[in-house]
Amino acid sequence: MEYHPGGEDELMRAAGSDGTDLFDQVHRWVNYESMLKECLVGRMAVKPVVLAKENHEKKPLNGILLKSKVPDLPVKEISPSYDWFQTESLVTIVIYTKQKDMDSESVIVDYQDGCFRAEIVVNDYSYLLHTELSHEIQEDITARVTEKTGKVEIILKKKNNVSWKYLGHPLESHNSFTAHREKGLYYRKCKLISKVDVTHDTKLYCLMMPPGTHLQVPIGQHVYLKQTIAGAEIVKPYTPVLESLHSDLREPLHPHNKYIYVIIKIYHTGLFTPHFDCLQIGDYVSLSNPEGNFKKSQLQDLEELFLLAAGTGFTPMVKILNYALANITNLRKVKLMFFNKTEEDILWRNQLEQLADKERRFEVEFILSEPTCEWIGKQGRISLPLLSKFVKRSLENSRVLICICGPAPFTEQGIRLLKDLNFSQEEVHSFTA
Ligand code: FAD
Ligand code: NAP
Question: The pTM is what?
Fold first, then answer.
């Protein structure tokens, strides 16, 4: 159990029963052609390697790396390990994270100019495989995750059907398991595919990732966009959205792991956005790995979800709203209170109203700070009277979450007011820088 890369959980799946089917499912490659013919029978003539204990050095062993404990992790959390095997046309890299509830969002893969990089996000840590592959591969890479066991399979298609003797030469930080905060951001160049007006100053941009990239931005997380402006690298965070509010109800036009949509407001006097808006279709912009501290698990078992957004602070709400309505079975109500200056500033107003008409659990209310005299809705800024009516539990002790995002002073004010209304820290999630 200690040695097996899949760990106890994987072994227990076959304990006490005939494990043949399971073996065929997960260990088909442990057969004569792909593995065993490389093995020799007999006694080893050289002295066995003694593993260095002090420096946590990892030694390869028949392609499987020995587990090593990450020093500052709780004892139970152990570094993932990897293995690889091949058929005539494919190379499969298997990473055993031993973590439950992993999903395809946890796997970020990039392949460019012969360099392969896979980052597997495990809570606040990530496991990195970084290698110059020994042979060329095609660019369409598949990543599969078995949620129950945390096994990640990355399938590479060989360019030439030759047998690989080794996976590749290790590059910087290969086979490391470190805290996110210790890692620099990794960027890849994405192509601008389309830009569509959302309001007078805000657009929906679609970016296409390079063919060798597999990346899905988890809900509630943001990415950084980077451009060189007047000789300086300028980096700003943006929260990807869906191509529309209803995309879960039909097949998305573009797969989530290849295309990214961002809604960006252009500030004419801003540093980044006027330059970003000058990009032509077909131009490139650098896009980072996702970051952020929102966890999907915060939505688990929710009964009521309240979203407070101001201006482009609406962007994190898009995926949250969509995910909650589609996946949270106990959810009784989702209410969005959306603050803007004028009617012209309201993002996706039609879509929000259509969703509210169609989905009985969803309600939206628009509040304007600079309305015209024709506006018959509510007006003003975030305030106690507005909030106390809006964020009301419909049942005593119901499980609620309130998400808040907008200009920093708006968010800070909202947090203070929600505290005054006796919501606990766990019940409020604020999106800040
Ligand atoms: P900036 O140069 O930052 O200027 C913005 C405005 O402030 C301009 O009007 C400028 O004139 C004014 N200004 C700048 N400095 C000063 C100053 N010292 N005094 C007074 N006024 C000043 N934005 C989106 O549109 N969509 C998103 O999805 C999105 N997601 C975000 C996610 C996160 C986590 C965060 C923190 C921010 C997000 N933002 C988003 C905001 C975005 O990162 C940028 O701040 C925004 O695009 C403005 O960038 P800029 O460089 O063009 O403007
Ligand atoms: P905006 O149009 O300037 O303002 C939107 C609304 O917020 C307006 O009604 C405005 O009222 C109100 N507001 C502004 N400051 C306020 C304050 N101090 N107190 C109460 N209400 C206030 O907004 P925007 O230009 O779209 O800017 C959106 C902001 O959201 C940016 O700062 C961006 O960085 C942030 N954002 C953060 C994230 C994240 O994840 N952290 C994601 C997306 C966007 P007034 O007209 O009275 O000012």
Answer: 0.85
